[in-house]
Write a structure and sequence with these properties.
- This protein is mainly α.
- The protein has helices at 2-23, 28-44, 48-55, 57-60, 63-81, 85-111.
- It is 83% helix and 0% strand.
- It has one domain.
Length: 117
């Protein structure tokens, strides 16, 4: 059942993105930024946490999940460090994911050959 809930939540987030691509003149880059900001906003108003509890990886893996992680990190750091946590919390909370993305990008670039279009 956990897999089905993750599939439904992740699938709905993807459907919303596809509808935005098809029906608006927004570029994919702008939609991705909107997803990150939406994740932060939904966490701030208290809506995203129940979605994560219900959908698991379906809610944390998409870019809205990255925004959620940023907001959670800032929230935790502010309670522990005060005002300085605003600047350090988001980076601390997402450092592992960012480092993994950079590492996998380097590995992919080393293993693949570039071609001219």
């Amino acid at each position: 059942m956990e897999f089905l809930r993750a599939f439904i939540v992740g699938g709905l987030l993807c459907v919303i993105g596809q509808i935005l691509i098809d029906k608006t003149k927004l570029t994919p880059a702008r939609i991705l930024v909107m997803y990150v900001v939406a994740g932060v906003f939904l966490q701030v108003i208290g809506v995203y946490e129940p979605l994560v509890e219900f959908g698991g990886a379906g809610a944390t893996v998409p870019l809205t999940g990255f925004g959620y992680s940023l907001a959670k990190g800032v929230e935790k750091a502010v309670t522990e460090q005060g005002f300085l946590g605003i600047f350090t919390g988001g980076l601390t909370a997402t450092a592992g994911g960012i480092a993994a993305a950079i590492l996998f990008g380097v590995i992919a670039s080393v293993l693949s050959k570039s071609k001219e279009k």
